[in-house]
């Protein structure tokens, strides 16, 4: 119970700090995730010791830590691997060795419920890496947060929140509950935009759900994308702006057309819903599962 509380407090502290820095600068230092992951690693060792687990479980740390560190080497620009100081063949060999160790453990411990929970750690890490490469998690910090959450909180808490979890807890990895809760909570953002625009008496469907109006000269002070641009000599609305567009050029053309206030959408980092999803996973439960059950009953 004490270790679980430490896990929750650690996650809230580091994810909260990461959310603040991501919101202000749109960057999160890798040290945040490395320290958070190291704490999760120590807590896991403490859990093994307190529960007198079989020493064979300690071998699982080899592939887990290799996958954890390899993601940072792959996504971080300022790493020894990127600079060419570490031979990629050596690193690939280490990763393959770690995977081989896990396959051997899988063969030996298959059916062990505790080991299957541990197995979710590398699986979630690989899943996060896949989401990152598919651009379903746009920021490297979001993916790093997810793999660190997998290392910090691989198990369900001892307490049951008021919405509960799956009927069979082991049927769904706990870190994925954090992710699905984050996705559900992110759907609240359009509603917040709507109330904000209604209070300011700015309404346009569907832009009132996607952003808000801002003085065109204030755009450079905020992390936003314009939802308006000049096309064929006219100002048109853009519902889904492309992230690789030339914002400076678009704003310049809008100014030439006499635009003073335009619709924009905030570059809201997914780190904020992920932080909220982490907290609600412990206090509220599995929101997505509850929604699915409600719909199924209907």
Task: Report what the structure shows.
A 3-stranded antiparallel beta sheet has the order 1-5-2. The protein has a two-stranded antiparallel ribbon with strand order 3-4. The protein starts with a helix and ends with a helix. The chain is elongated and about 70 Å long. The protein is 60% helix and 7% strand. It contains 12 helices and 5 strands. The protein has 2 domains: 2-155; 166-298, no CATH class. The chain is mainly alpha-helical.
Short description:
This protein has twelve helices and five strands.
Quickly give the structural class: mainly alpha
Tally of helical segments = 12
Our Rg estimate from Cα atoms comes to 23 Å
Distance between the termini: 37 Å
Give the overall silhouette: elongated
Query: What is the helix content?
Result: 55-70%
By DSSP, the count of extended strands is 5
């Amino acid at each position: 119970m004490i270790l679980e509380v430490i896990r929750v407090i650690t996650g809230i502290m580091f994810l909260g700090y990461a959310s603040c820095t991501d919101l202000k600068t749109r960057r999160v230092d890798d040290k945040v995730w490395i320290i958070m992951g190291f704490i999760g690693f120590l807590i896991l060792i403490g859990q093994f010791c307190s529960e007198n687990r079989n020493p064979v479980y300690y071998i699982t740390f080899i592939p887990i830590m290799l996958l954890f560190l390899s993601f940072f080497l792959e996504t971080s620009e300022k790493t020894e691997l990127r600079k060419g100081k570490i031979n990629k063949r050596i690193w690939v060999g280490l990763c393959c060795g770690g995977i081989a160790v896990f396959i051997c453990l899988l063969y030996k411990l298959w059916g062990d419920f505790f080991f299957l929970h541990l197995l979710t750690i590398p699986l979630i890490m690989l899943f996060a890496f896949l989401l990152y490469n598919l651009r379903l998690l746009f920021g490297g910090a979001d993916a790093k947060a997810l793999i660190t959450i997998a290392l910090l909180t691989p198990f369900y808490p001892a307490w049951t929140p008021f919405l509960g979890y799956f009927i069979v807890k082991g049927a769904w990895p706990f870190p994925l509950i954090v992710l699905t809760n984050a996705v559900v909570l992110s759907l609240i953002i359009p509603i917040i935009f709507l109330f904000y625009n209604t209070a300011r008496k700015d309404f346009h469907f569907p832009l009132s759900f996607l952003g808000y109006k801002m003085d065109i000269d204030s755009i450079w002070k905020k992390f936003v994308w314009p939802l308006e641009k000049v096309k064929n000599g006219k100002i048109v609305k853009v519902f889904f702006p492309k992230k690789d567009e030339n914002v400076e050029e678009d704003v310049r053309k809008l100014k030439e057309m006499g635009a003073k206030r335009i619709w924009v959408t905030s570059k809201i980092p997914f780190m904020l819903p992920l932080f909220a999803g982490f907290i609600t996973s412990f206090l509220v439960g599995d929101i997505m599962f509850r929604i699915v059950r409600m719909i199924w009953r209907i």
